[in-house]
Write a structure and sequence with these properties.
about 325 residues, alpha/beta, D-Maltodextrin-Binding Protein, domain 2, 13 helices, binds (2S)-2-hydroxybutanedioic acid
Length: about 325
């Protein structure tokens, strides 16, 4: 080949790579979730989008799909493994297919409050759990709080026998199923997107959720009673697929992680505030009667539900449960 031809070839190659760099499409992150935008998770996802698109302008875009618009509970993690969505933050009760260990968060009356949950998540076991699904192709990027769960129903629930024979919608966790069976109730696993209609049509009698979910999805409008039970926690894990995460250039991965860490701090702050504010809005609406159980009544729920821990001790690991109990005490 003549020198001229070689030079032309080289120049064409350089032009092509330059064109590629100039025209390179930004990386798109689709973030799918099931709750409304005015919730801790909804707000966290929007903050994440804002931070990423400011800090990585032109390089990464984030599209947030709230309220199960893109994928509901049953599909999102499969879709992530197929590369159809890059990020999601399912409740910790929704990873059963991928690891049994995360069901630790569902054990009734395990954590005394959200500070205990935070201490556990930041500790050794919490960090290990973020990596517990890597062999299944999922990477945990961080935890996000929502808050403590309350029990809502179409009839008043003061003591465990009030729940007998009633149907409660639960997330897809066997621990949650066992928790309701422990009080002779009937658990029904259903996606979040169906809960309102199930309650409205009285296909089910009740459900468990946080104040912000009960408020934002209007469950309080179709449930006459809400028992302030604080019997369990509803938190999230922000996840991505290992394939997508490993495909990111390391500088971009670092920036995305940093934006997420900041968005989580922001979301956690909203979670703490909403737990108070949304409860108050429900009280003010007078659509639902809030039941404040006595310490003795609460103890009856604890006595009835706590045996569930033992049933799941092998699957979850006694050492993990002990670490959670230890997180209830400030060192
Ligand atoms: C539920 O299904 O009740 C919750 O997990 C919804 C959510 O994501 O907060």
């Amino acid at each position: 080949m003549s020198l001229n031809k070689k030079l032309i070839g080289l120049a064409t190659g350089i032009m092509c790579s330059l064109t590629f760099v100039v025209n390179a499409e930004p990386i798109e992150i689709k973030f799918s979730h099931v709750v409304a935008e005015n919730t801790p998770k909804g707000q966290m996802a929007l903050k994440f989008k804002e931070l990423v698109e400011n800090n990585l302008s032109g390089k990464v875009t984030v599209k947030v799909f709230p309220s199960s618009q893109l994928f509901g509970d049953n599909k999102v993690l499969e879709a992530m493994q197929l590369g159809d969505v890059q990020m999601a933050a399912p409740a910790l009760s929704k990873f059963k297919k991928y690891t049994k260990k995360l069901q630790i968060f569902d054990l009734p009356f395990l954590f005394t409050d959200m500070d205990s949950v935070e201490r556990f998540q930041k500790g050794e076991v919490g960090i290990k759990l973020l990596r517990s699904m890597e062999r299944k192709g999922l990477v945990g990027l961080g935890y996000l709080h929502n808050g403590m769960k309350q029990l809502s129903a179409s009839s008043p629930l003061k003591v465990p026998s009030d729940a007998k024979g009633k149907k409660f919608r639960i997330m897809s966790s066997d621990v949650l199923a066992a928790q309701f069976m422990a009080v002779d109730a009937m658990p029904v696993k259903k996606p979040f997107s169906e809960v309102f209609t199930l309650l409205q049509t009285k296909a089910i009698d009740g459900q468990e959720n946080t104040w912000s979910n009960i408020y934002s999805k209007k469950f309080f409008e179709v449930q006459d009673y809400i028992t302030e039970s604080n019997h369990g926690v509803l938190d999230y894990m922000v996840v991505t697929s290992k394939e997508f995460w490993d495909s990111l250039p390391s500088d971009i991965r670092g920036e995305v992680s940093e934006a997420l860490a900041q968005a989580i701090v922001y979301g956690n702050d909203i979670a703490a505030k909403k737990a108070q504010q949304d409860k108050q809005k429900i009280i003010d609406s007078k659509r639902s009667i809030i039941i404040n159980i006595t310490a003795e009544q609460r103890q009856l729920w604890v006595n009835a539900m706590k045996p569930v821990w033992k049933k799941f001790e092998k699957k979850i690991g006694k050492d993990y449960i002990d670490a959670a109990i230890a997180a209830n005490t400030v060192n």
